[in-house]
Amino acid sequence: MDLDTVRTFVAAAEAGQFQEAAAELAVTQQAVSKRIAALERDLGVRLFTRTPRGAELTIDGQAFLPHARELLRVAERAVASVRTGRRPLRVDVIASRGAASGLMRGFHRAHPEIDLDVVMLFDIETAVAAIRSGAIDASFRAVAAPGRPFPPDIESVRVLDEPLQLLTGPAHALAGARSVTVAQLAGHRIWMPGIVPGTEWAAYYDDLVAEFGLTIEATGPNFGSDALLDTVADTPALATFMGEHTRLVWPTDHGLRRIPVTDPTPVYPHSLLWHRDNPHPALATLRAHLTTTAPGHDAAGTWAPGWVIPR
Questions:
Q1: Do residues 87 and 135 make contact, with C-beta atoms less than 8 angstroms apart?
Q2: What residue segments make up the domains of the chain, in order of their start?
Q3: Percent helix, strand, coil in the chain (nearest 5)?
Q4: Is the domain covering 89-303 a CATH 3.40.50.2300 domain?
């Protein structure tokens, strides 16, 4: 159905005169008459009766009017859903409990007037493809693995270096330490079943192992963070890594310890990625917010792979 004819019908019905409808729509009275006649032909009914005072709705016109108004409202909502600046800003945060999710919560508190759609994609290739297709506006990603550079139309900025912490149960040999050096971790089993080969976090931990001679095991099924915490709490020989800004809650009787890692501190480098031609105005607001509010860490005394996106 031609929305211009529907819009003309509604204007004429509300004005009661074709001449006033023409003035409102900035068209000629003849154009109004032609549009109404075309709509009547499509519907197979008469919508108006001409009277000395103008145009009155027939019984069919009265029946059609509320549906015509709803058609126009639906059309407006459809356009608004994709109109730059009016649709929500769509951002990929990888996981709901990670640092990127915390950064977006902070952005939402600072800018509650901006509508957000937060999604969780899995791998970096999917995220980059979604940015390039316009399915999302931005993504938080940690690294660009060797041999897989970003396409030239993808922009990025490193927004957060998140220190790693060691998580142990109460009976672990390092549980009583206030901090541990990377060298002290050699020989200890660090269990991380969430590491998936080919992902950017797998590339990060592969380099961490190669650099410092650590033992990271990704064996066994990944039943999620609750199962990981239960196992670490009950197994004195196991520990795991987690980011300083990762939000996890566990029962008090688990007795888990979060221990800073030093000398150097491995940091997981989170970057924001977006398409260079993305016109969404809220994207610039997000970038400015992260530049001024994201907690940073001095490069001195930290470690990250040499192939990550530079600051």
A1: no
A2: 3-80, 89-303
A3: 40, 20, 40
A4: no
Question: In residues, how long is the chain?
Answer: 311
C-alpha 245/C-alpha 165 separation (Å) is 10
Q: E strands, the chain, where? A: 48-51, 54-57, 89-92, 116-119, 138-141, 154-168, 180-181, 189-191, 215-217, 238-243, 257-262, 265-275, 302-303
Beta bridge partners of 181: 262
CA dist 42 and 59 (Å) reads 17
Strand 54-57 and strand 48-51: the pairing is: antiparallel
Report the CATH architecture of 3-80.
Answer: Orthogonal Bundle (1.10)
- Cross-strand bridge partners of residue 268: 162
Q: What percent of the chain has pLDDT over 70?
A: 93
Render pLDDT for 150-183 as a digit per residue (tens, 0 to 9).
788 999 888 999 999 999 999 999 999 999 999 9
Biggest distance spanned by C-alpha atoms of the chain: 97
Burial 269-299, CB ≥16 within 10 A → b, else e:
bbbbbbbeebebebbebbbebbeeebeeeee
**pLDDT range class, residue 200, cuts 50, 70, 90:** confident
What tens digit of pLDDT does each residue of 242-294 get?
A: 999 998 889 999 999 999 999 999 999 999 999 999 989 999 999 999 988 76
**Residue 6: pLDDT above 90?**
yes
Q: Coil, strand or helix: which one is 243?
A: strand
Q: What are phi and psi of 3, to 5 degrees?
A: -70, -25
d(CA 228, CA 16): 70
Collapse the DSSP code of 115 into the 3-class scheme (helix H, G, I; strand E, B; otherwise coil) and give the result. coil
